[in-house]
Amino acid sequence: MGMEGYGMLAIGAILAVLVCMRFAKGILKSIGFSLATGWGSMALVNLAAAVTGVGLPVNLCSLAVSGVLGLPGVVLLFLMNLICAV
Question: What's the whole-model pTM score?
Answer without folding.
Answer: 0.68
